[in-house]
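Chapter summary example: a protein plus iron/sulfur cluster.
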Amino acid sequence: MRVSILVFSPSGHTLKVAQLFKREFQNNDTIVQLIDITRNENYLEGSNIKEYLEEELDKHDILLIGGPVYAGHVEKNILNILDHLPEPGGKYGDLVVPFVSYGGVHSSIALEEMGKYINKKKRKSILGVKIATKHTLTQTLSNIINDGKPGKLEEEIISKAVERIIMTANKDYNKIKDVGRSFSYSKLPERILFKLLSQEFIHKKYKTVSIDTKKCIGCKKCVSVCPVNMFACSDNKIYIARDSSNCILCAECYHSCPSSAINYQYIEKAKERLEDGYAKLEKEQSAIYPKIKEDESWK
Ligand SMILES: Cc1cc2nc3c(=O)[nH]c(=O)nc-3n(C[C@H](O)[C@H](O)[C@H](O)COP(=O)(O)O)c2cc1C
Ligand code: SF4
Ligand code: SF4
């Protein structure tokens, strides 16, 4: 069996989940290819994403695709990748496993929307996985949510997921069903709300990241950490090189700037919502969908 994994991971947690999947598949004698699209211009801009995917994606039976949850949705770059997936047939099997990492607060419709895109691309979702990880926006707040995750518990869930993926893929093909409907696990009012409030709508007015040139020491950390290559350097001066609409508000530049030269207004919103235990965590933190009885112990 051959597996390809595509991942977008602004702050590294979804990548860690992808690497745990890779290790677990390899432990089960599976050939695995992992493509990390973070900071990769070919997958973030332009109209040739499908061609790049066709060039880079190895022959596979199963495709795993994952990204972080941002504002109740899966981060939009990974939806864009799903939208440009080459058709199954020939080199590519049609079985897909979407996975998301999230800060444990709410994963809402992230898996559900991935399931719909997968179906639209004539592939079948055979399992969906949500993994609770550190909430990156709480890194500098008094209440760091899910610090240290993914850890042992999440590794166990990933191992169980791999077992189920292999079992499903080995079934008679005609008996393998698309299970995308099981990804609609959030309560109906929340699902309706996030269907109405797109990620773009929620984040739009905060995409105002700027550099305080008086404080900037030109270390270029922001250039190297930005997952969508917003920064550039010319004559030793750092500037924002892409239209602000491309910023995904990941806060990597803000967190890594050694001289507090990045203005990032969204942190005030995060403080308001997430500090001092105000945010309630999603009841079931990490899970595999569709649910089966023995999963109950992970609650
Ligand atoms: C802009 C932004 C929005 C986020 N929105 C949510 C959210 O709606 N629910 C949640 O539980 N976590 C949310 N998070 C936390 C991330 O989903 C979580 O930390 C994830 O593991 C980050 O993945 P990465 O390290 O691969 O970037 C958000 C983080 C950022 C930066
Ligand atoms: S990380 Fe901060 S100090 Fe370093 S180049 Fe970027 S803005 Fe300037
Ligand atoms: S500019 Fe900063 S907040 Fe925006 S995507 Fe880049 S690193 Fe993230």
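Key point: The pocket of iron/sulfur cluster (ligand 3) is lined by residues 209, 225-228, 230, 247-253 (CB under 6 Å).
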